[in-house]
Amino acid sequence: MSSTEAPMSPQVESDLQVARRGCDELLVEAEFARKLARSRETGKPLRIKLGLDPTAPDIHLGHTVVLNKMRQLQDLGHTVIFLIGDFTSMIGDPSGRNATRPPLTAEQIHENAKTYYAQASLVLDPSRTEIRYNSEWCDPLGARGMIQLASRYTVARMMEREDFTRRFKGGIPISVHEFLYPLMQGYDSVALKADLELGGTDQKFNLLVGRELQKEYGQEPQCILTMPLLEGTDGVDKMSKSKGNYIGITEAPESMFGKLMSISDTLMWKYYELLSFRSMNDIVALQAQVSEGMNPRDAKVMLAQEIVERFHSRKAAEDALAAFEARFRDGAIPDDMPEIRLPGAPLGILKVLRQAGLASSGSEAQRNVEQGGVRVDGGRIEDKALQLPVGTYVVQVGKRKFARITLTG
């Protein structure tokens, strides 16, 4: 904000703090501050857009990072637009990939979309959410409209996208239809007259296309807010079903609780910032308590209970905690167990079992996991490809084999 402009009101500064929490970038912040101030003065809510392609039927906690931000802005009184990209899903978005994503059929999109919004409503307030499908305005464009839209953006600008540049230089094919994806996503912002669009850091290029197209159509350009990609339970890769490191928002309470308890003490604080509804002041105070001697496990229990309660119920969270703690009571977990340090983290669970002497071979380690006999910090491990990051874990195999294992880098 320039020196010639009026200073920001406390309300606008408070709203900006809500927007900034956990975000990677807010562009352009001064523009967004002006939009917030105008909204406060006129009482007219901002139009805040989030587009999600229903490429899979289920949502995991990684998806909720952006949904949480939408809910925070929704609670400030702004209009939240949950946009289902039924049209763009049929194109396929190559964001962050070295090859094109296979486009979905209309039937697949329909099936996925049926459960998508129901799950998102576990985070958003359905009564204050506008649901739209981009086929509403994309289908009527037709061939003539598509050509006119394409004339408003250059190939040179499109090739500024890092993934396209890398693939072009590497001789990896880029289909012409892939250029249409960022164009159509940008056109969504024109059709919806968006003031702010949210997305993951991997969507930054597409969000910026929306800004440019709005200018082309004589609209005030949207601001963009990108959120970090959340690492999965392995603490290494982006949360993903294909990586097996995800926590689904509809999975059983005990499974959800156990997976949250399995994350490292360090990653826990990122989960708090991006997933918890606690204030940042509360989180900072909790960090201080841990640094002063509070067991980080207790802080992790609080986080796990909050998340389970949000997606299930308070009783489900209490029952999940009771089941988790029951495994540590009555001698179920011995006070005295081998202390083992293993280098090379992140380390696969099968290697951990073998190197710690909890399994005599890789095949035995795999069999133990497949039979449900392996627990890490009380949570049953079902994924034999699980990678454990740096941290200390109580690992159990069967009823009698235990070790406290510290993994180092």
From TrEMBL:
Assigned EC number: 6.1.1.1
Chief location: cytoplasm
Record bears the keyword Cytoplasm: yes
Subunit structure comment from the entry: Homodimer.
Taxonomic classification: Bacteria, Pseudomonadati, Pseudomonadota, Betaproteobacteria, Burkholderiales
Catalytically driven reaction(s): tRNA(Tyr) + L-tyrosine + ATP = L-tyrosyl-tRNA(Tyr) + AMP + diphosphate + H(+)
All copies of domain RNA-binding S4, residue ranges: 349-391
This protein's name: Tyrosine--tRNA ligase
